[in-house]
Structure formats: C-alpha cells, structure tokens
Amino acid sequence: MKRGLLASAAIALLLTVSISAFGQSLKGTVSFMGWGDEAERLMYETVFKDFEAQNPGVKVNYIFTPDDYYTKLQTMIVGKTAPDLFYLGEGMIPQFAKDGVCLDLDPYIKKNPELTADFVDGLLRYGSYQGKQYAIPKDWEPILMYINADIFKAAGVPIPTSAWTMDDYLAVAKKLTLKDAKGKVTQWGAAVENYRADWMVFARNYGGEWFKDGKSNWSDPNVVKGMEAMCKVIADGNAPSPATLDGMGQSQTQLFETGKVGMFPTGRWAVPTYRDSCKGFNWTAVEMPKGTTRSNPIITAALAASSTTKSPELTIALLRHILSDKSLATVMKLGIGMPAYKRLLSKSEYVSGPPAVEPFIATGAYIDQKVQFTAVATGVYAKYQSIISAQLDLAMNGKISMKDAAAAIDKKANAELFK
What we know:
The chain is of the alpha+beta class. 44% of the residues lie in helices and 15% in strands.
C-alpha cells in the first residue's frame, strides 16, 4: 500500500476509534443549530440518531432553522440560550469570534488532530480569526458553470473543456441564444446572478484584487475587466438582466431548471435540486471560463461551538461525529457540497455525479486564499457585500458602466467601512 493511502487509512481509523472511545462516558443534551432544506434536515437527523445510538446517555436537540437563521441565532445568544454547536457562514466567523461568541477550538484540535488533518489547501483558514481556529468548515462549495448539454448539442457547440476562456464564454452565449420572428428571446445562452459567488469568480479571473491593503479596490483595471465580461453577456442580449427576470417572475436557476438557458454559474449546493428537477434534459458542469488565471471563492458552512456551552466535551464529541467519515458519507451523497478532507475527494461515496465530478475536484487547486480571506477578516464583510451588490445591480441592468460601479463601490466602502 502506498504511503498516502496508509496515512489516509490511519486518519480514518483514528477518527473512528477515538470517537467511540471518547463517547463511552458521554451523558446529557447537546444542541445543534443549522439551516438547509428538508432533504438536509432529514440527512442530519440520521447523523444525530447515529450519534445517540453510539452514546445512549446523550440526546441531540436539533434546532433546524431554514429561515431568518442569523436573526434567530443572535436572539438565542442575547437570551443566553445559544446552541452548543452551530453553523456560521465564512463571512460571519470573524465578527462572532470578535464578540466572544465562539469557543477557541485550538486546544481541542491539539487533542484531536484528525479534525483538521488533510484539509483542502486554503479552506481551514476561513474558520480562523487572528490566528486562532474558531470554526471548522464542514464542506466547501465550488462555483462551476452548469451546462444544458441538449442545448449545446442542438446548436452544434461542443461542451467546453477546462481550457475555455472568457472570450469563448461570450461567443458561446451568443450561439446558444435564440429569438423568435419578432426578436423576442426564446432561449437564453447564459444567465448570471448578482451573488458573491458569481462576481468573486469574474472579478478575480484576470488577476485583479477587489480588496487590497485594507481597502476596497474594485477600480483595479483587472477587476473591472473581469466584471465587464459578467455584464457584457447581458448587454449583448445573451443573458437576462435582473430587471428582466423580475418582470418574468423567474430566477436564474429556475430558467436553468426549465431548460430555457444554456449556461448558468452556481455552486455545488444546486446539485441536489438539479438532480431532481433537471430530468427533462441532459446536463453537466464544467470549470468556469478562464481570463488570465483562475480563482474560486470559498462558500461554506463552518461548525462553531458556543463559548458558553456547559458541556464542551460533549459539544466537541458531536463536532467530531459530524466530521467523521461515516457521517460525511451520509451528508455528501446528497451532492450538496465537497468534503473538506483531501482523502475523500476521489471516493465516489463522497463526490458523485451527476454532474461530472472532475471539474469540482479541480477547483481545489485555485481556492482564493488571499483577497476573499482578507476581506472576510475585516469583520464587516456582510456590509461590504451590500454596497457591492447595490452597484452591481445598476451595472447589470445597464444603468451605469462597470467602471463607474467599481468607483462607486470603492468610494462608499472606503468612506464608511475601511477608513
């Protein structure tokens, strides 16, 4: 057996054995709070029932919160009833850690090194703040271009390979767009969304840094160049604007699900829905088009423990159970995310199709470890995103140029957030 395989097997064995041994004397109730849809709720109920079966003296109180998650979490924290273990998105961790809400996990990681061993490069730091680990990403959500293969076939256009460029993307979008005799679009070549996952790919694909030296830096010419490609597909009439979609009463993802768009970039989280809803046509996913380079953002739900938990050992035991190979196999089979551990990426129990798995795995080589992370670390990431989104909406609707939108973002963000 190769050394890498031996190491992976040893980690998996350590995790399984130590959870079992650690859990024999566990007693009490531990609470877990998370978001998701009904499928995710059922999935985690299975995970928690398994934990209770392994530890007969333990009860898991699952606080499933599909809506207004952070409002309810903050209410519980203020009311001193914070859940023992809970989800935090990558952009919320610095603020919660700064406010003393999160338990410092470093001492527990030292005792249980398998928790963070073999992590995908660049991912773990998104659970840290000022050099300490306050959360552990349970998975990650690569952003890919989802493809309606039937539309491509009908147009005589080959499915893009990983070598395709931004220019290719714009050309393909034009070829896939169809109009009726009156000039009304009946099939869109592409769709793009005003969402952080989308713009972080386009903004970085020419090497631009939209946040630099503690300041908003959207006026970087390379950021503007990448974002102009995102807006140009709309300006060229090959993707619907946000205003057009509002008038249609449909979202970008609904257009894809109903077979009305050839290409749509989104995250791995779409896979469970598409497996169910896209049964009327063949579909897959490919890596995002390249400018001069590639970058993929980190979108994750990390696991954080409350600093006020009355039973840290039980809380950490549940954390370890959720991140065990067995639990991750239960979770990952839904296709909702990518496992955080490298050793699991090549295993079909954890990363399966449809769509093709290779493009998802490939994104792990170019996770943004610089720009996004430094912006997240400011602790005002959510407010910054609001400023960005407002200006991008104007640009995507053709109200202002992308250059003007970038200048407006920098002016407002640097005056209000990054003085």
